[in-house]
């Protein structure tokens, strides 16, 4: 599904990602963990095409995508959320979601001018889909609120909502649990599992170890831009190298 | 001045306001909706004016053409050539940060003015093109300007309608989203560069048509008419005063600004003849003061940004 092969990314001589390789299998939930500054979000940006790798290759759905523009990779069926929520501030929550679906015929100005009835019908469909996502995230009451006025946690949920609207094959979630209350976090965890049931693949960065241990099939650990270990949650948890990476010193 | 005189001056005034309104609507498409920094309106204006002039004048040894085509075709060609120019400028610059587009457009506007000034075979150089035909001028008598005003109003109505419909559609939603947070739009699989380019080209088309209207109304154009002060910055002031991202505000901004601009002409005209040079500088200062007052008291412009929505159930 997704394969990262010896990817390198440098920022002014600092290697944020250093010959990192791993694979994500179809229809699994894979956790990507590691200490702060391990290069996890940079890796997300490399996979999604927001950044270009200096060396190495990224393969997604059997294609080499490391030279693709971000929007092209998204069209291949990849959706992502951002660690620090990015919202369309002056647009309503509903509009934030309705923006997302691909292939809307009204995105073509000509259709929007001269084929209004078709565009309107699609918009209705799109809107009810957005309302289903809002209902699921318990955000229905803020549908018409400008995204700028949401709380931090709600913005986090809106990020997730956008990923759900895209209906992608692979979803990259960057700390979906940060700043979200425990009840909702449970709900998000259940939803991630539900996505897996639907055949989706999820790659997830998260610092909440309970969430990682409960829902992930595999866990990849990064440290200093490198792939450290991977395995089942239980294997990773008891691996001394992981403890060392997190705690800094040889404490084991 | 007689009542008839006042009336015909009013018509004259409104035609110019209307031409500027076309330009402001065009700039609003580029700047207000797509966040594009075009400070070379004069270039698109000039290209529109000269294209229509060359297309519609009778054959002449003094410049390219003329091709003696009907007014409507001249208008259309003016829009298309200006749009093509925008497309060519956009290829290298539109994906860059906005200041680069600004630098490119202001540079190219100046280059265009110099080309028109120097390439005599094309544009008759500094002597300009005269005798640009007015549509139906033979049939209509001395109330002709009213007819021309109707043409201008019709074109404003078409552009206004299409611009409103566009921005209130899924297309417009993507455009507004790009202005807010480009990364989100990319992550949703939308080609940001394409949308920016479309807004830039559409705006340029409108500017080209506006330029053509100007050429036909004044029936004489020369490089002098396309200096940045009148052709670019006045349009920006209109947009800022009316409120960016608001088509209605653009129209009002054009009316008010052009009113003040021509009004100051009366005022400075009252100064003794010895002060003519100072008088024209004074007009610019007065417009500047007006802009300052608006920026300090209503930074969002008189009307501010309109709330647009693509949703069918609302609006």
TrEMBL record, chain A:
GO terms for cellular component: plasma membrane. Keywords: ATP-binding, Nucleotide-binding, Transport. GO terms for molecular function: ATP binding; ATP hydrolysis activity. Residues 2-249 form the ABC transporter domain. It comes from the Bacteria. Gene3D superfamilies: P-loop containing nucleotide triphosphate hydrolases. InterPro entries: AAA+_ATPase, ABC_AA/LPS_Transport, ABC_transporter-like_ATP-bd, ABC_transporter-like_CS, BCA_ABC_TP_C, P-loop_NTPase. PANTHER family: CONSERVED COMPONENT OF ABC TRANSPORTER FOR NATURAL AMINO ACIDS, CONSERVED COMPONENT OF ABC TRANSPORTER FOR NATURAL AMINO ACIDS-RELATED. This is Branched-chain amino acid transport system ATP-binding protein. It comes from Halanaerobium salsuginis. The lineage of its organism: Bacteria, Bacillati, Bacillota, Clostridia, Halanaerobiales.
From TrEMBL, chain B:
The chain crosses the membrane at residues 6-27, 34-55, 67-91, 144-162, 199-221, 233-261, 281-297. Its main location: membrane. Coiled coil: none annotated. InterPro entries: ABC_transp_permease, LivM-like. It comes from the Bacteria. The keyword Membrane applies. Pfam families: BPD_transp_2 (PF02653). It is found in: Cell membrane. This is Amino acid/amide ABC transporter membrane protein 2, HAAT family.
